[in-house]
Amino acid sequence: MTNSCVAYYKRCDTKKDGKVVVCHDSKNNVLTPSYVEYKDNEEILVGNKAKDNLLANRHNIIYSVKRLIGIPFNDPEITSYIKHSPVNIVDINGSAGVEVEVDGESRQLLPEEVLTQVICKLKAMAEEDIGHPVLNAVITVPAYFTDAQLEATTNAGIMAGLKILTLINEPTAAALFHKLDRFDDTSSRIVLIYHFGGCTLEVTVLNLSIGEINVIAVGGDNQLGGHDICNNIIDYCLREFYAQTRIMVDRNTVEGDRAYRGLKDQCEKQKCRLSEALKATIAVDNFADGHDMKVELTRAKLEELNKELFARTMDCVTRTLAGVKNGIGMKPDEIDHIVLVGVSTYIPYVKNMIKKYFNGRQPLQSLNPMLVVAEGAAIKAANLNGTQAYLQDNSRVDGIPSTKEYQTACDNQTEIEVKVYEGEDPVATNNTLLGRFVVMNIPPDKAGKQPVSIEFCVSGNGILKVKTTVLSQGTLPEENVGRLFTKELLIIKKFL
């Protein structure tokens, strides 16, 4: 999540359809950098102001929070994040969090608390544009998000003071923007969404028919995005600087970190420039020991530096297609439409790579692929408001439940621990543990005499709920398998 965007659906006075409006900030920017800075005296800056302070307050500015949210601290992905993050990553009750210093004291924050600040900023922008308070929202998420990540994202919206009408996966939002859900007949179509953003890569295959958009395959890489392209350019520049000056920059020093941040800013700017130009110059004054940095970078060199990275994205496409139809797979020619989304799809090499993979077919891409997802979410919100207005009160229809019955395993057993895993491996412990809970107050009896019914149901937001029933006693309270419940959220919100 390098940048964030907010849009809404504006009704017209006539009987014709309304239009989607993308909100601008006070400086007419439609994209808000997803940077949050924590300062003394409880001051919090979000967006460009926070990003502009990176050099001055690097340890208190958090970005790329999508790579942290809902992730356990012991996940291997956290190791990669720590390598490039100036912010201290900490273990908060088993979950990855961040640590900042405010008013001379250490403060630990969950990623969803940071995300809350970004959502509050977007909410304020929308309210300024619309002219009245915003109470409800549709939030977009990657299709690969786990249950814990969905739960954490929903929690962030609630802490920002919003009722979350639904979470919509980003590929579906992109399909809505391109009107791929509209049909002139009863046929269906298969759409592949290639979402290559600043933080992550997501490849999704959708099956669209009248009134339905179904995700039939998801792939991607949570540690592969525009930041990684930029890191490869940074490493190249440091090698070139060393070859020119024999000076090795130590990022662990204050001077080295300042130089690194200045270089990163230049690399990001020139990377974008190379989408239009054939060459660019990366220049940083007084980079190290009184020496200026000046490195020429051509588009061809950028492609060479990231050739392996780009190939990894196509490996994800291949694996995702292979997973369609329960592993039967799908050929590129069976895809009806290819849609490009995300800032990294501006890169000409990426566009040509996708076109070649799909045998010369031209992918769909808006003039600004970074806005596609927000505009699609606004269309979804309009659909909910018009055809399912009851969702305004935040009620929702959950999915079809699945029920299994279990029995006590030993005499006088009064409790059963239930562990819920997410994944497709036949060995349960090889999958992701979503959560655990204990069914209590089972009447003492002989083994197998006290059956317990457990009902699993995935909500409209994709969050798993579990309901247990000791058949001799009745239904027990429903469990949300996740990290935080609304009661806990309200407690957190009071201290924000």
Automatic annotation (TrEMBL):
Domain of life: Eukaryota
Keywords in alphabetical order: ATP-binding, Nucleotide-binding
Pfam families reported for this sequence: HSP70
Listed GO MF terms: ATP binding; ATP-dependent protein folding chaperone
InterPro entries xrefs: ATPase_NBD, HSP70_peptide-bd_sf, Hsp_70_fam
Similarity field: Belongs to the heat shock protein 70 family.
PANTHER family noted in UniProt: HEAT SHOCK PROTEIN 70KDA
Name of the protein in question: Heat shock protein 70
Organism: Medioppia subpectinata
Upper lineage: Eukaryota, Metazoa, Ecdysozoa, Arthropoda, Chelicerata
